[in-house]
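hi!! sorry for the late reply, been swamped w classes. u asked for the two structures so here they r. pasted raw, havent cleaned anything up. first the sequence of the first protein and right below it the tokens
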Amino acid sequence: MRCTKLLLALLMALSAHAQKGSTRRPSSNDRNFLDSLLKTDAQIKPLLQQKKELNIQIIYTKIDRDEKNLPHFTDYTYQLNSNRYFYPASTVKMPIAFLALEKLNEMKHKGVNKYSTMITDSSSEKQSVVYTHPMAENSVPSIAHYIKQIFLVSDNDAFNRLYEFLGQQYIQKQLKKKGYPDAIIRHRLQVTLTPEQNKLTNPVSFYDTSGKLLFEQPLTYSEARFEPLDIKLGKGYYRGSELVNEPFDFSLKNRVYLDDQHNILRSVLFPEATKARHRFNLTKDDNDFLLHWMSAFPRESKYPYYDSSTYWDAYGKFILFGSEKKEVPNYIRIFNKPGDAYGFLTDIAYVVDFRNNIEFMLSATISCNSDGIYNDDKYDYETIGFPFMKNLGQLIYHYELQRERKQKPDLTKFNINYLQQ
């Protein structure tokens, strides 16, 4: 009863504030809204006592539409702190997918598109090649196929292929240009390479359906210079089977702030409400393609095909569902990119409920490494991380179900026919 009264009070307080502009910060009266709301949840509240140790960071964006259906955003944050490092894991695949499509649009005069055959070669040690792909239609590798894999099941090799197509220098330059100067994406995933080897990216070539060469990109060496980081976490880590009793060094790892990822996703979902300099250069077909595969269930893909017993509907939908292996109602769709590695669990998400006409953005990260040891495969994902993400998503979802809106949103843009491949 007490929690219900507090929730109703929060709803009344927030409804009193009119939206101005496309994005606003909470007023002094509701600045502590998210903190207060989190404390109403019996599962989340105990974790708040360890909020610094768990490095909990949250961004919730309330979306209100005007009479023209234009979105207006109010951002609420909890413990958001760029000085508290978290390893972004697979969330870095999202901006890389967007940049890959952007780079293709810069090359369109060469006749290359996201469906063109993409051949990855090698010309240095530890580089791997891809001439065919067994999971792709007709076994033909392409940018489109890799992006599908990234959003459907967070495939690491697919990310590596796009990383090699882009190169460190292009990634850094484009993200900085769009307003993300602190973003660092400097290495491939799930392969052990030196910093120098990650500077080298494979030769890549594109062909049309007749086998005609459209474009050839040689081996590229990155001249990118990254901000020196001094990030050492925990009390130990495993190097092979050996336990090293000293903090684990993240200085040469990727880094993308939670708010940067949140805004990157928002810029693609809502380009009409994003300043031109922050947008990705994407066509309408690119946007439709991304919305489709960001929100599709693995079972809705023919190429690549994924067995639903291994890749269930809620696979990778940490917010709202955690690790639940269940079917998701078709009226709910989540456009997101999650990541988990080194005990860090993160999800960057936009949630839509077509039956109840609600929408919101929610991004969160939490550290699930209570023993402080890295590389031991003993992380608290199942006991702390996934339940936290599920409960957080449910809390915001139920708040959204109760709050009043002046204008009912028209969510047609996000209501996709998933039968079209």
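now the second protein. again sequence first, tokens right under
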Amino acid sequence: MLSDNLSIAKKIYKRKKHIFASTLIAMVMGLLYTFMVKPVYTSMAYVYPSSLATYGQESQTEQLLQFLESTEIQLYLIHQLNLAKHYQIDTTKENHLQKLKYILDEKIKISKTKYESVEIKADDFNADTAKLLVNSVVNGVNWLIEKEHKEKYSETVKNSLIYLEHKKHQVDSTQNLLNELNKKYEYLNVGIQLKDVVKNQYKMQSGGSNNSLTDFINMSEQLKGIENENKGKSLSELFTSINNYSLQYGKLTTYFEDQVKGWTQANDDYQKNVFEYNRKINFVAMASVPLKPLTPSWPKRWVVMFVCGIAVFILSCIYFVYIDNLKQAYAKITEE
């Protein structure tokens, strides 16, 4: 085994000039290649999810990744940045979208970091486009999440509006009943003053008050005012009407107030849902904004030269050892 290794080393040393020349040529060619190939510029950003609702056991970062890797984001980039023109793709061909999606899969890399953030990295032969791709990905995911947010709250707004209309119908119906009573029984059109009289009358009938002389005097003065406001109606007639219908009117008024409170609450809910629907928010927070790259990320000239040199050096060693072995084998055969 040792003799075989020594034999190989001797053959390599014997061919050192050839191997060195081949390695040097490969490094020079690798260097020339770096000047001929289009440079690649890389821009990146680190983002965090913001204002995302959680569903199931997925974290907000995992949800954000799903949005970022969706087809809708690719289509958003294709149309917003006119990438077909930028990458010289013929849009008259049926498979042009597939080609553009494949290019974006190669040029845009999205990954989760150990800090629960998301790294967005974009490569392009144009430094401005590389930065623009990253920015557009962030804008696109905000647009996509906002669209789904609006679709979600659209249903909520519709349902809350239906409920608001229902409560409004109840209020209007009760108001119509009160208006009919006002029209039928003229004593009811005195408003707040009559309401107090009705309450006092109801309390006195039900024993809810002490029935003091002051209460009777106050109610008497109120009734006189009502009689003056309702000419043609005697006090006894008004009192009889109050006595007969005060309980009904009081219950209906209480019911009307409850319905108004319900409508107010429904209107507040509706306004909140409309506000939430129209609210403009960013669902992605940037921890590190993308910058325009000043130097290309590829090709790295010294890396290319080193890789080319090492590769050709190894191949040259294998080749010349193999050639020498063939020559030795051929010499043995010819000697025999």
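hope this helps!! also noticed smth abt the second:
The chain has eleven helices and four strands.
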